[in-house]
Amino acid sequence: MARAYSQDLRDRVIDAALAGLSARGAAERFGIGEATAIVWVRRARQTGERQARRSKPDAHRDDLLVIEATPDMTISELLERLLTERGVKARRAALWIFSIAWG
User: Fold this and answer.
1) What is the extent of the structural domain holding 96?
2) 15-33: per-residue pLDDT in tens?
3) Quick one: which of 3, 25, 26, 73 has the most CB atoms within 10 Å?
């Protein structure tokens, strides 16, 4: 699973890139992966967004915990119920990780 980075680190990488350093250069300076820096900088330039995004299951945690209370429900059934009852389409892997973290 991916390592979570602090908001402070995310801001320092983005600020360095916006000040003229390349995203790859900022990644090297701050010791993170190039792809990670590229994604952060691209999103900051395009939308101004700097915050980490929450996964869909995390955003619907309370609803999922109620739905998940049915003990014999499979991940497939949970995905279907989330879609039909809440209008949220999530990936199987995201739901699996959520169920491990909150289960």
Assistant:
1) 56-102
2) 999 999 999 999 999 999 9
3) 26
